[in-house]
């Protein structure tokens, strides 16, 4: 591959050992231009490369690993950045790079760095259960579990996740797990392995499954990108922000990019080339609005912000940003008599935690693990609708644990995402708890959890006030945004709710596709990144088959 550097960052170029400026983009060369180097973008780009296509992957951020140009390594390991070390994943938010890596033009949280959200997230890696795709008609025909299973298997082969990352076969720091597993056993829940039993999602708990491989944060930057980089038909360009796709009617002819030095430039596609958007559920809508695709009001705002949007006769009135969804989180804190606490991140960072660092040198120990110590799942039924819940449990202080309880699959609320004239995507209508059913079901679930915890024999003590209204109002974002460019058979131009068809192609366009979280028509039962990757694997195959 060639590693193009659209601005000019000497350190990075030196690290990669190949120099190319923005002017060296090969016009009318690329069969595929993939916009956004998050999980969905890297996976699809790699599959196009494997199929022999000439591919350009454009990513607005920098690389977060040594192999992709980062130079701020751990003082005690020059091959690893803080991002790579599983044991620091809970502390990423307090690192300097957090500010460099997070997007500043999305109201909801998203990462603008190679690897996208997967570079900064808590690594919880939930194999989706079959019911996520099969139990209602939200995922269209062709996108049921039987259709997606081969894509999931391709993903798991390269990026399997693990509930046991330590090479010595031991789970570390188990005080929280031992207290909570006792509690759940006493109320009749059962222990499962969330990787080998993905369909068990009612009254179950598991060791957390993490996106970790070889004791490092995994994800497509590590498990797919190197495979693409072996091929000469692949170019990656960092610090290259795409502003819009360039259209000639229903045909995309290229993309307009802004380089790190704020220069704009148009890169044109090969004859019969395609553009694939993978900028994430909060940023793909901006690209669509800027390209004259979406509600009229949003395109007008894009135009006001100074973007060179196409002439009005080319605008496509599609429901981009409508149907916006996410998992809401409710937080509970529980005092226990268990022995656990928060690791000393400063001592890990500065190298004085010799015990854990030396174990890590043997691929073992606390630093091979992520933040959480247990994940649980359950469900309830209200007025005939089944809703699912995930609980992510981590130490909050000595002997105190925090449960982040997510309302997940089966939730019926949605909101609206729009654009401002500063080119920021903002939440016009909250995606959370908009329906009476969601409010009633979440209240019932929290109520039952509180009741069990408050039982005098539980050995636990709720430190959060047991006031359901107050707990439901602690709502925070799950950061699992979806459905801003929904996939479905009901064409949005004709009053339907869908922006892309079941080949992930934008309605009304010949060669424009979307493959990221935007197209998911429904929320998964667990944290979303695994589902994002499965859908990207499947989408790459569908797109390649369209000729
Ligand atoms: C703080 C946080 C914690 C999370 N924790 C978890 C977790 O523990 N488990 C889990 O399963 N999920 C978690 N998630 C969610 C998960 O990371 C995301 O759902 C996932 O990364 C979405 O993938 P994507 O490919 O759709 O988009 P993104 O990951 O958002 O990737 C989009 C990519 O496109 C790039 N881009 C955007 N605009 C442009 C442009 N105009 N031009 C060029 N490039 C562009 C971005 O820089 C980014 O690299 C978390 C998310 C966040 C933010
Ligand atoms: C690391 O990279 C940054 C950004 O590219 C650069 O400014 C800095 O000088 C580099 N530091 C070292 C030690 O190479
Ligand atoms: C490293 O961090 C630990 C824990 O915060 C602190 O006690 C120690 O002084 C630090 N040492 C150095 C050399 O910075
Ligand atoms: C914690 O409480 C439980 C339940 O009351 C009890 O069985 C257990 O022995 C206690 N553990 C400790 C370490 O005190
Ligand atoms: C419960 O919390 C709500 C919202 O915070 C508050 O208005 C109400 O007074 C509380 N009820 C009780 C019984 O404390």
TrEMBL record:
One term under GO cellular component: cytoplasm
Q: Its domain of life? A: Eukaryota
Q: What start-end ranges are recorded for coiled-coil regions in this protein?
A: none
Q: Which cofactor does it need?
A: FAD
Compartments in which it is found: Cytoplasm; Secreted, Cell wall
Q: Which UniProt keywords apply?
A: Cell wall, Cytoplasm, FAD, Flavoprotein, Secreted, Signal
Q: Determine if Secreted is one of this entry's keywords.
A: yes
Q: What is its main location?
A: cytoplasm
InterPro entries with a match to the protein in the record: FAD/NAD-bd_sf (IPR036188), GMC_Oxidoreductase_CD (IPR053208), GMC_OxRdtase (IPR012132), GMC_OxRdtase_N (IPR000172), GMC_OxRtase_C (IPR007867)
Put simply, this protein is called: FAD/NAD(P)-binding domain-containing protein
UniProt organism field: Penicillium argentinense
The organism's taxonomy opens as: Eukaryota, Fungi, Dikarya, Ascomycota, Pezizomycotina
